[in-house]
Design a protein that fits this description.
By secondary structure, the chain is an alpha/beta fold. Helix content is 42%, strand content 26%.
């Protein structure tokens, strides 16, 4: 049987990802695992016919600072539940970065939340959870929040 000692949990600060983090903490406390909580963000790029607009360095810095504050706020109240929580923030495409970070921390299990979108919203917004599963090289658990 597989031994799960290092979890990677991807969060976007929405209720489904926070529910996935809580689920992972509950499981990790039972099996003695540690958790790396990952947030990925993308620097906005707007394409136009003759080129592209890329966010300024100042805007990118503000985006990174805001993401770091939000990550700390997501982890803070969850400290003290008997599980070591480590923070990790990366810039990039979420599902790709999840796999890169899982390799980096040698995660035994990836945990992500899902919004459960269907139809046109799924087609337009895609699904980080779905892409993570489809390209996984290690076990993935997808948690759907009961609030959705």
């Amino acid at each position: 049987m597989a031994s799960f000692k290092r979890f990677l949990v991807g969060v976007d600060f929405e209720p489904p990802s926070l529910a996935a983090l809580d689920w992972a903490i509950d499981l990790a406390s039972q099996v003695g695992a540690t958790i790396t909580v990952l947030h990925t963000y993308e620097i906005p790029v707007v394409g136009i016919p003759d080129g592209a607009f890329i966010a300024s360095a100042e805007y990118a810095s503000k985006l990174m600072t805001a993401a770091d504050v939000a990550l700390a706020a997501a982890i803070g109240p969850r400290q003290g539940r008997g599980v070591e929580l480590n923070r990790l923030m990366r810039q990039g495409v979420a599902w790709e970065t999840i796999h890169e970070a899982a390799d980096e921390v040698d995660a035994d299990l990836i945990v992500v939340g899902t919004h459960g979108r269907k139809g046109i919203s799924h087609a337009l917004l895609g699904s980080v959870a779905e892409k993570t599963i489809r390209t996984a090289r290690r076990p993935v658990v997808v948690v759907r929040s009961t609030a959705h």
